[in-house]
Amino acid sequence: MEYPQLIQGGMGAGVSDWRLARAVAQQGAMGVVSGTALDSILLRRLQQGDPGGHMRRGLAAFPEPEIAREILEEYFRPEGTEDFHRFALAPMAAVNAEGTLQLDLERLLVVANFVEIFLAKEGHSGAIGINFLEKIQMPNPASIYGAMLAGVDYILMGAGIPLEIPGLLDAYARGESGSITLVVEGSERGDVTTLGFDPARVLSSPPRSMTRPRFLAIVSSNVLAKTMVARASGKVDGIIVEDYTAGGHNAPPRGELHLTDEGEPVFGAKDLVDTERMKDLNVPFWLGGSRSFPDSLSISRAAGAVGTQVGTLFAFCRESGFLSDLKRRFLELVEAGKVRVFTHPEASPTGYPLKMALVEGTMSDETEFSSRKRVCNIGLLRRIYRDENGKLAYRCPAESVEQYVRKGGSEQEARNARCLCNGLLSAIGLAMEYAGGYLERPFLVPGECLDSLRTLIRNVGLDYTAADVIRFLDT
Questions:
Q1: How does pLDDT run across 266-297, given as a tens digit for each residue?
Q2: Cβ–Cβ under 8 Å, residues 12 and 36
Q3: Do 257 and 265 contact (CB within 8 A), yes or no?
Q4: Pair 451, 290: CB distance under 8 Å
Q5: Is residue 145 domain-resident?
Q6: What angle do CA 161, 162, 164 make, to 5 degrees?
Q7: Do residues 127 and 31 lie in contact, with contact meaning Cβ atoms separated by under 8 Å?
Q8: Once rounded to an integer, what is the mean pLDDT over residues 239-245?
Q9: What domain range is 118 assigned to?
Q10: How deeply is 358 buried, as exposed, middle or buried, from its count of CB atoms within 10 A (0-12, 13-18, 19+)?
């Protein structure tokens, strides 16, 4: 299998959904599904009535029908509509005494990732990848297994240093169980906490072997690239190098943090990747971040890269998961030159700088942020820590400031933290509505370079397709 020159970025929860990844792969590029919150996305789609029957088609393909049937019976609402938002929630992850997640969540994660990849791969032979975040550790072992069960071609992971993931893929490919080491705040030296996943706990007849997908690490520096190649638990098949202009989370600036007068992190020469040093690693690599112009691919290849990763152009195309009205409003602002992307140093519960589009009515709007009742009910970005009794416990900077501080967290760390879990699900039409009538507001996290997007929509129009993006990049 040859490496594709163009990789579609795995953006947001459900923005890079199966439809977008499939449309991109059918054009010969690599389509990438976002692996974030697929358990919640599956359940909420089912509760909204599963328009088009796609979730049910994916569930029908799951190799153990009884497991899929139980999920369908519990969550599918045939009377549901896209306006339904009083969702029953997916279980929040917690590590039990055996060092695993609760069985119902393991099953749900396996099934949800299987369904999304099955649908993305349906009806074509193009390459499909799935993007996970190292920062969201607990769902990853079961989620990766579910994606492999559906035959995913690539696993992509960033937002940390995913040294253990290549070895996990090797274990699953051999039909074995696997584990990862969890980051636990407050642990003493030598206190290692692992999270395991055993396929036999979930499936009555797990496959004896599976095809190992290629693993692409997403990094922001030569140092991290070299570390992945030298120290990973298995083969790193490639590196995606994202610079600080890329959308979503960015790695913090190297060295001491300085802010502009407007409060954005200052990035400098230390944050630029030396492509000559990348070539010395003898590993295929791609360049991402502001690589979305018609000449970007040729420039990247001339620098030694296989190709480019492009996110924002695909994020707002017709096939992406964003709400249509939200997508169009953002594109109109871009076309008029009236939107700015701000790199907020404290908005993400991860502690990483986060790109956010300053759009009225979204969670970048200080009025919306301050009026939201802070609640953590999805919990993907919760941090694991040891409480006063030495037991594992969980806290998130985006939960109630009082609760976070009571759990030993820093008030300053929590003050500006937004709930990305709810904000990103809201942006794809799966917002939670509460008893008081409050509906969660969306969050938009595009890359900061919008010039290419402006050029694209002026050439093609506001309602452009993934194929239009690929033609634009190939001109």
A1: 888 888 888 889 999 999 999 988 888 999 99
A2: yes
A3: yes
A4: no
A5: yes
A6: 130
A7: yes
A8: 89
A9: 6-321+463-473
A10: middle
Give me the CATH number covering residue 57. 3.20.20
Q: What value does the mean pLDDT take over residues 34-49?
A: 97
Which SS3 state, helix, strand or coil, does residue 6 take? strand
pLDDT of 251 reads 82
Q: Read off φ and ψ for residue 324, nearest 5 degrees.
A: -60, -45
Of 387, 393, 381, whose CA–CA distance to 95 is shortest? 393
CA 396 to chain centre: 18
Nearest-angstrom CA–CA distance, 135 and 154? 19
Q: How far apart are CA 121 and CA 54, in angstroms?
A: 13
The confidence band for 100, taking pLDDT boundaries of 50, 70 and 90, is: very high
Pairing of strands 238-242, 178-182: unpaired
* Residue 216: predicted pLDDT: 97
Integer Cα distance of 150 and 140 in angstroms: 15
What average pLDDT does the segment 108-135 reach?
Answer: 97
Q: Examine residue 416 and state whether it is found in any structural domain, yes or no.
A: no
Distance, CA of 33 to CA of 26 (rounded, Å): 14
Structural domain count, the chain:
1
